[in-house]
Amino acid sequence: MSGRPLSRMQTNVVRLASPRSARCGLRSVFLALALSFPAAAAAQYEVKIEPGTRNLLLQFALSPDDGHPIKLVTRGAAWGLQPQVEDVKCGQVALHRDSDGDWIAPPGCSRVSWRVTPDSYDDRGIDPSKQRTLAIGRTPWFLLAEATSLLRPLESSEQSSIGTPGSERLLGATSVGLGRFLVPPASKAPEFYVLGAVATGERAVGEFHVVYVADVPDRVRRLGLDRLHGEALSYLSSVVPLPTPTSDSSRKLLVIWLGVARGRGTVGGAAGHRSFVANYLVGPPPDKKRNAAMTLAIVAHEQFHQLVDIARGRLAPLPVWLSESLAQYYGLKALLRTGDSKYVRAVRRDFINPSRNVTAGLVELNRRYEAGDRAGYDRFYTQGATLWNAIDSAIVAATSGRQSLDDYVKDILLSPIPKNGTLPAVFVERLRSVAGSEIDRIIAKYVGR
Fold first, then answer.
1. Helix (H) or strand (E) holding 15
2. Which pLDDT score is estimated for 36?
3. Sequence-distant (≥ 6) Cβ neighbours of residue 40 within 8 angstroms
4. Nearest 5°: CA angle at 36, between 143 and 55?
5. pLDDT of residue 246
6. Whole-number Å distance between alpha carbons of 12 and 287
7. Which of 13, 47, 337, 418 has the fewest other C-beta atoms within 10 Å?
8. Of the candidates 65, 77, 49, 159, which has an alpha carbon nearest to the alpha carbon of residue 112?
9. 3-class DSSP state for residue 356?
């Protein structure tokens, strides 16, 4: 299974800290009574609000099991995310968990149900990288996170769908039928959904149709966040080589804004398959421009991830170092296009610093990360952004400004990556033909071998 590393930014020092990745986790909730859902087709999820509570009730139909028990997991658990599922049942029988923490559906089980107890959302905000299902507002609407709230068979890689049998409104990014939305396959990033009465905004950005949801819509409107996101999306979609749309739904995005108090310490985002959740900083008026700069850097970072997911299609995901370093650098490039203010320069300086000491190449840091050593993760952002800035500057200098990294990045995004996790040879050769041996020096310093 794969997922997307998720980003957090330290608001006091304007720094992206170690992200957390998501694999669906569900905290078991026991259903004391049978759910009154209508029959659902195999692999289709149903969700509704439990009457008189702030909880969600979910269920889905299992495909035939050939007489064998089926392990049920949440995708986020593999990435260290805490499940939010409780009281998992087959009919009226509670399912037990094995030594791995997975739920076991017995042979012949055709329908599994459970409850999700959402986290309460307060004025100080939350860290989206934890991919938690949330109850927002007094008469709550719900942010439903697939990664921590949907069970699926361990060996299943198929996509499915989710809908609601009642009158509640469900909103997702990719529609797959009347009132139903895509649950991505295990090879793609998990998704976010919105359930309940919530105001939405919409914006057309090039080929994309974006739906916006916010915790405090008036505040988001005053901050101009929808416009800033639109500007970032417009630029990034001109850089990332997107395939020709096969349907209208392939160009629909869902953006969910959640405020976070500056004193909380982090501002982050989590990119889903076609949706993402982004923090925005809330503070006094003098901080407005600084907060907007930090917010846009995170939003553009996550938006780049999402576009790359569309561009690569069936290609294997990029190595983590390459995915995060490119997303961070292009997030900063998108930020710079909004204006070269002192706030923008401050955010960029925190990541792009050629004088910072390099103790290990990014490929080596990635090897350590995959072996379980998370200590060097920050350098995917800092050392990584500095790498791409150096390459970008070398191309601009060699071509007197006629070209930039934007003209060559497609050779990474559309190419298979070598097994050792380094840069594709065709990409390096093209850069070398433009900027000469300077490219080799930069790669040797920052990427290594």
1. strand 15-17
2. 36
3. 46, 59, 60, 61, 111
4. 30
5. 61
6. 12
7. 13
8. 65
9. coil
Q: What is the DSSP string of 147-182?
A: HHH-EEETT----EEEE-SSS--EE-SSEEETTEEE
Q: Which of 354, 431, 423 is CA-nearest to residue 398?
A: 431
pLDDT at 31: 26
The H or E element spanning position 211 is: strand 208-214
> Alpha helix locations (H) across 240-319?
288-312
Phi then psi for residue 72, to 5 deg, are -115, 135
The answer to whether the beta carbons of residues 129 and 276 sit under 8 Å apart is no
| Helical segments of 75-164, H only | 146-149
Residue 30 has a pLDDT of 23
Structure tokens at 92: 């009226």
Give the pLDDT score at 310: 87
CA dist 19 and 279 (Å) reads 14
Residues of the chain with pLDDT under 70: 1-43, 65-66, 246-249, 263-266, 284-287
317 burial level (CB within 10 Å; 0-12, 13-18, 19+): middle
| Dihedral over Cα of 134, 136, 140, 141: its sign | negative
Maximal CA-CA distance, the chain: 71
